[in-house]
Amino acid sequence: MQRLSTLVDEARNRDDGFSIIEVLVAMTVFAMIAAGVAMGIASSLYLAHGSRSREVAINLAQDAIDRARTSTNLFGVVDGTSQRTVGGVDYSITQTARWVATAGAANACGAGGGPLAYKRVSMTVSWTAGGRGDGQSVSMNSLVAPPTSVTAPNLGTIIVAVSRVDGSGNSGVSVGISPNRTNPNGATAITSTIAATDVTGCTYALNVKPGSYDVTLSKSGNIDDGTSSGSLGAQTGTPSTTVRVQANQTSSATFNYDDALTVAPQWIDPNASTTAFTAPSSAPVSLRRKTADFGPYAAGTTAQVFPFTDGYKAVAGTPAACASTDPENWTTANGASVAPRGVGQPLVGTNAVRAPVQILTVKLAGNGDNALTATTTAPTPNSGDPGCATAASYTFSGLPAGGTVTIALPYGTYTLQSGSVTRILGGVITISYSGGAPTVSPAVGVSVSGNKVLLDPRRAP
């Protein structure tokens, strides 16, 4: 009995159990196992949610394809984007529809030769996977053929394609098609209504009798880029082109047509931009883009032009007739062009486009002289002036009698005459010239040689 009591006392006195380190290790192991289980559960839930979302997206794409296939008007199946929310997930459905001609590749309007055969319809359904932020998408394509031939036998189709400056379609453009006025070649009036262009910038005239037709556009505030055959080289709000329709074929009329940019042409001396000057009665400004010139437009007015993304260069006068007016035509002795540049077009916050010119100070010849005429003339040899193919004349009136005046002229070589105005009729100013020549004050860019005045845009770099 005493032995048993001793053993009990020893057991009570022993310090058996788990240490704090053992507890921490056990908790760490448990946490790692629990985290792995949690991640597995979360991944399973995410995959299940992703599978459901993908299944919904496939169903949405299939529904959209089915609607395109059952459409009674295949011309109404066009590009578009719609939104759907299913099970708390937002889906974006993007439809792209392209006509395919029998002899051409797929494009928005179906141009490319041969009758319109079918439409290639592509559906892309995209959504954002919950909790991860990464986008998911599914795509589905189908070829949809019209129930009957688009155009009856022995007739043709006119496709009108209208693009904006960024290449997208210009929708809502009114289109007129009529037999060519000078040589219709058998064309007859189209009696069916021609719809305005759709979201892809396309519209169609079906069952058209073979012949030559004029296609004309109109949309308020829009202008073309000057490449339409009916208005070649001149930007216009109602561009036109002529197409030839053949039996069992498609004919295309393509236009670049967009919202017009309003500009306000000005003359300015880039080397004395704050100096006031008197402008001639006609102060033309041409807008040059690459090798094409548009205008000239009158300084101080506004003009509507096509909104090319690379903009225009403003040049005083008519550079196509007088190379001198464009500073870039002048070169230095080593062949480098060193010309002053105007501010970018248009100026920030305004519609101003500024053509560089040269200001000069002139003392009129006679005490009663109140008008001045500057006429371009053949430049002095080796002066560097590229010259003018066609002479230009600038008239200044209403000047202080016999006084000194600061005027502006395009670059080039001129002869000056002053006199008094005898009559102004229909905008034509008649001047009685004095016997002497006006006196020009030499300045930077202005030099006088005999009766010639050289206005030189070149400056030292």
TrEMBL record:
Transmembrane segment boundaries: 20-48
Full protein name: Prepilin-type N-terminal cleavage/methylation domain-containing protein
Tree of life domain: Bacteria
Highest classification ranks of the organism: Bacteria, Bacillati, Actinomycetota, Actinomycetes, Micrococcales
UniProt keyword terms in alphabetical order: Membrane, Transmembrane, Transmembrane helix
One Pfam family in the UniProt entry: N_methyl
InterPro entries: N_methyl_site
